[in-house]
Design a protein that fits this description.
301 residues; alpha/beta; 3-stranded mixed beta sheet; disordered N terminus; binds guanosine-5'-diphosphate; binds magnesium ion
Length: 301
Amino acid sequence: MDMINKLDTKSLFVSIVGKPNVGKSSILNMLVGSKISIISPKPQTTRNRITGILTEGNVQLVFIDTPGLHNPFSKLGDYMVSEVNNSFSGVEACMHVVEACKHPTEMDLNLIEKFKKLNLKVILAINKIDLIKDKSALMEQIQEFSNLFDYEAVVPISTITYEGKSDILEEMKKLAEPSVFFFPEDDITDQTERMLAAEIVREKLLRFLDKELPHGTAVQIEKFSQRDENTVDISALIYCERESHKSIIIGSKGSMIKQVGIDARKSLESILDTKVNLKLFVKVKDNWRNKASVLNDLGYC
Ligand code: GDP
Ligand code: MG
């Protein structure tokens, strides 16, 4: 009788949605406990859907991190928006992330419309509660959002203090339904290491170039190969739109690209748990954001 029934498993796919910069990627990382999705103070860092997987006991939660919905400004923008829309199909629940003590934005209202139309089960995560002192404002916010939509649960959280982490996990587990596990129990992501490498290089570019990073810079991994037992060779191409952008990315006497390379290598070595030989190249692709063929090359189509 007390034998564990192997078929007694449950799963839930959860799309993490919300305005850029509210902390969606940080939440994914907090829940899955590893640096899967890159985090940046700039909006729109997350270009691809990123799946994090958390298996605890007999429940498997599969997370999809989405770029914030925004107005398409180019083909790349279109792609990102379609990714957000795609992430609603086949998804069984959503985590709607908002910032503490902020009123609903137009984007929040649009998302809520979608939740209603698709009849989705949604948990509201009120993030960054470490920043607030006035708890009564939080109560008002909970009330305001609850009047707009019938959330399965409303959970105040912080990815800094980890407050609310176990609560939100519990709420998601409650929504899980009997099913087989879709991923091996010890997987944390289905994102390929190649994509991860590109994301890491992009993250370092964003970090070091800060506001200077030219809009429309993309990273493509040209080579990702195991040299021997201990070393992976990675070549990354950094695409930009103009010669002047290329100079910024390379920096004076190559100082910028060197710094990016060193930091990216260190991160990759720790994530991949191997020695990494990283080569970075910078190439100008004229107005690449509007060329479908190039987007194809970059894996954005
Ligand atoms: P996304 O665009 O929604 O994926 O947001 P990110 O996860 O990239 O986070 C955006 C910014 O908010 C980053 O600077 C994070 O460090 C910061 N952030 C995320 N969660 C919290 C939190 O709980 N508290 C505070 N104070 N900052 C946070
Ligand atoms: Mg993100």
